[in-house]
Design goal:
This protein is about 40% helix and about 35% strand. A hairpin with a 4-residue loop joins strand 10 and strand 11. By secondary structure, it is an alpha+beta fold.
Length: about 425
Amino acid sequence: MQASKSTPLLLIAALIGSSTGCSRNSNGATPPQLLAVQVVKAQQKDVPIYHEWIGTLDGLVNADIKPEVSGYLVEQAYKEGTPVEKGHLLFQIDPRPFQAVLDQAEAQLAQAQGQLEQARAQLVQSEAQVAVAEANQGRTQLDVDRYTPLAQQQAITQQDLDNATQNNMAAKAQVQSARAQVETARAQVTASGAAVQSAKAAVETARINLGFTHLTAPIDGIPGIAQLQVGALVSPASGVITTVSTVDPIKAYFTVSEQEYLDFARRFPTGEQRRADFGQRELELILADGIPHPYKGKFDFADREVDVRTGAIRLAALFPNPGNSLRPGQYGKVRTAVRTENGAVLVPQRAVMELQGSHLLAVVDGDNKVDIRPVRMGETFGQDWIVDEGLKPGERVVAEGTQKVRQGMRVDPKPFQTR
């Protein structure tokens, strides 16, 4: 009974072993399947090298609107965010107190002018009195001159000569008095003239202060949100009420490193060469959504100094902005070609592997074997990367499947499919 039971078990074990052996033999006969990778040939061509920097947009001119006098805002005469022209009324401060001051100053000016005319008339009268006094003195002097020889000849009495002499002395005193009155009148004219000038200055000051109640746009531009509303009490200490900015063209500030600036300065050592390059070089503005601004820009100026904290220098560029689509405060990337790399060897950026600060490429040779090769990379160009050293034009590199390949592995190369 035991022998009969063990026979089927042995038979099953033999069948399983036979089946396993056949399976192993069949698997051993199948050739290994090659790893399929996508490869691309290294291209060689002249490419422009672009640099880009983070830029901040600002108005070409930003005019802060501040009150110059104290008073209550009675009107906001513009719509926020709507373009205005130079001279457009933005805010109105209550003008009545300033109009009253102007009226008072004009009245004081009229009074001062009247006093000046009166002083001038007095001067004319004093000068006329001088003329009368001088004429009288001339007559008395003639009497003295005539009586003196007659008295010596005793043709007249001494009393007559003494009387003539006294009259002449009195006439001279009258002349001196009249001349003093003239000087007094002239001083009064001068004082009245000074009062008139002071009154005119007061009128001009009052008129200027009245004008300050009209807060107008000093430039063509776009005014911002009002920081104070109608009814608010404003003064020179209130700060900025709004800002008007000229945004066409719009200014973009960006900073470049000191090394970049020095490299540029060495390539263009003179001011004329730098200005010529600035005039020819076009700048691109890549907006925050990644879409380029449709209009090219130009360099405007470089700051006078390098920031000691960052080691960078600030530059400014101007971009046309028709329609005022760009606004101050926006961010973007300012981009330009700094030079041309002649005969550059290019591979897709996705083909480059990084390992501990070094760069590697998986190169596929003519036998479809992989050579993991260290290379020295240069600048990027779009989706490609320039290989400065370690790769020849036309060599095939793995662009898809780099994480699966190993040194010396034979692969099944397929053309790289760009997505």
